[in-house]
Each structure stands twice: as C-alpha cells, then as structure tokens.
Amino acid sequence: MAAEAPPAFDFDLVIFGASGFTGKYVIREALKFLSSPSCPLKSLALAGRNPSKISEYLAWAASPCTPPSIPIVPADVSDFPSLLGLCRRTRLILNCVGPFRLYGEPVVAACVETGTDYLDICGEPEFMERIEMEYYERAKKAGALVVSACGFDSVPAEMGFLFHSRHWEKPATLNRVEAYVVLESETSIVGNIGTYESAVLGVANASNLHELRKSRPRRARPKIPGPHFKGGLIERQKSLGLWALKLPSADAIVVRRTLAALTENPKGLQGVDETEEHKHKRQQFWPSIQPAHFGVKIGCKSPLGVVRVMVTGFFIGLLAMWAFGRRLLLSFPGLFSLGWFRKRGPTEEEVHSATFKMWFVGRGYSDARLAEGAAKPDTEIVTRVSGPEVGYLTTPIILIQCAVILLGQRRNLPNGGVYPPGIVFGATNLQERLQANGVCFDFVSKRSFLRV
Fold it and tell me: Which numeric CATH code is attached to 11-151+396-425?
C-alpha cells in the first residue's frame, strides 16, 4: 500500500498580527530569508485584521526595494472560522498578536484543531501555563507543535542558560545562576508597549496564575546540588559594575519549565522521525546540561536606573488591581514608566541605537562531593548573551530562526504538544543560527574562591 502523501499547503509560514508594530519588524526579518537557496522558507503570507496597514508595513519592510508579491489574508481573533481557514493553508503560524491573555488562545485553538505548528513571542506566564494545561494532550494527538516565548522572552535566557551550564564539566557541579539583563542605548531606551501592557494585566490577574498552579499536578523537580540560595531584592554586583533589581520575569519560569521537562526526559524529546545524526546529538547534548536554581535581575550602571524600574513597578503594583487604575496605566504609559514605554513606540534611530547584554553568573563547586551539607560554592563562571535592541530587532531574529529550524528540521522535533522553547530547540543548531544573525554567546571568565 502506498504511503499517504503529506498534505499540500499554500504557505510554509504565516505571520499573524502583521499589522502590529512588532509584526512589521517580523515581516522585515522574514524577507531576508524568503526563497533563499539554503532556506526552507519558500512561501509566506501575512495575516491580520487590517490588510491596508499590512500592505503599508510590507512596503516599509521591503524598502528600498519593491515589495514582493506576498498574499495578505484577512483574519481576526474574534472570527474563529477565519483562523481555521488560515491555519488549514499553512504549515506554521507565527503569532504576534498580544497581549496573549486577551487574544492568544483562539489562535492556539485553531492551530491545534487543524494540526498546524505554532510559535509566538509571548512573555506571559499565565497564558503559557494555561495553554500547556488545556491543550497539551490535544496538540500531541493532532501533531501540532505549540511553542511560546520564542522572542527576547525567553530564548536568550533559555539558550543562555544551556550555554552556561555546559561550561560546568564534571567533576564540577552547578548550584545557581543569576542572569543580569542590561539594556543600553546611545539615545534613549524605549520599551515594547506590549511588554508594558502584559505586565499591567499580569499584575491585575496574579491570583489567576496562583489558582492555576494550585489546580495542576506538580511537575518533576530536578535535583540541584548544594543549598537553595535566595538573593536580595536589590544587589550591588561589583564584578559586573552593576546595580541590580530582582525581576518577576517570565524567563525564570520558562527555564524552570524546560528543566522540569528535562527531568522527565533526561535525553530530551524524541523527534517524530528524527535522523540518526540528530538522535546521537540529542542524546549527547541533554545529559551534559546541569540543572540549577535560576533567577533574573535587571542591571543598571547607576542606582538611579534601579530607582526608575522600581518606580514603574510601584505604579503598576499600586494601580493595576483596580479597573480605573488599569485605565490610567494603559492610557498614560509614558507618565507611569517615566518615559520608558510609550504608545507610539520607538523611532528607527532609537531602535538601532539600542543593545542588550545578558550576563549569566553561575556559582557551584569544583567537585560535586563538596556540595554536601550547607557548604558554600567555591567556583564562579560568567558567560554572556548579547545582541541588538530587544523588542523589535532581537525578537524578530529569534522568532524567524526558530521558524526556519522548525520548517527545515521538523522531523527532528516532537510530533506535537505544548513546550517551552529550550527543550524543543536546545539540541538543534539554534545557538549557531542566532550567532550568525547578531545574537552572540560568549564565555567571559572562571574563578575559584578560597574555602573557609
């Protein structure tokens, strides 16, 4: 009996939310790879609720060249049949429509119903955990691979942690890693307004996340050598020359989800029809990863920078719990963030003048036997991930590289399910592809401490 032919699709990839501010930068990044001889991205469509704006953004993204002939498909999260029709025509959906707690689930539901793969740039823990709880089994059965946080939230943290962990070679063992995010600019730093809106709504609905976690079975927890370390809210990180403030970020949650998945699958996730080469690489890669306690802090060169972040957090924490306060926060982001976020977004000059560095400072033991009891770590390793502006340059780079890998290496990835990006892409060549496109991974230093 002849093998069943694979389904025919009109498109390899659809960018949904292409009429949004982030979406236009994703279009520009995708055009760099469309129909490149070595790239599996051969056909592309753009989708959203405002076709005329999408056409405008396509022309902007292609400038100074004439925009290519790319289909524009009307679709809206409030019109589920339009989402189903869209998903049936493509292998992969890239979802750029946020806040995801408001607009994300219908897109996931349509992808799962049609067996379409899905990536997004979400950094909202409640959305990601709720989608995993409600759609994991259905996605696995349908063969739909659903992966959130494929942008600055949270691939630099995930891939940076994996890169860092592999520098702890036995008999050394890792205990904890603190990541310090430093945003820099030659002009001024203007944050992604979607991040601000998600933060406001996340604080307003914090109780929902708490109840969600109470209702779920506890995930497997990795065994981490040595004592659990809880750092302070504010830190003077002398070796990096930074003042740092602990962040309730999605990054730490996403990394923990990958470590939980790794604890349940010590050699990673088997591909649906993986090559022998990838199987060997996967089975070598994942046992080399050492789990650790992980936290994220925002780093600033002066204490005034920390104060600015604290003031923004204070206003959000104070006002987000009430409907009137949320309206104020969302109506006047520039006022309540001291100019850090604004509705109209950054200028091109502000985007291209901004960069980030994410420092990973790991503490552990030169020999695993030293971790017994309450002994203090005696070894420190520092690594770094760095790149261009986080919301409109780094995020599209990451999203498109994840998409290219999914399209070109689909047989090496899980058949379906809902996962964080680290456990899906960790054993692929994502780090190398990011490095080739401007997101750098560097070993910085290693030092030992005298044991007292």
Answer: 3.40.50.720
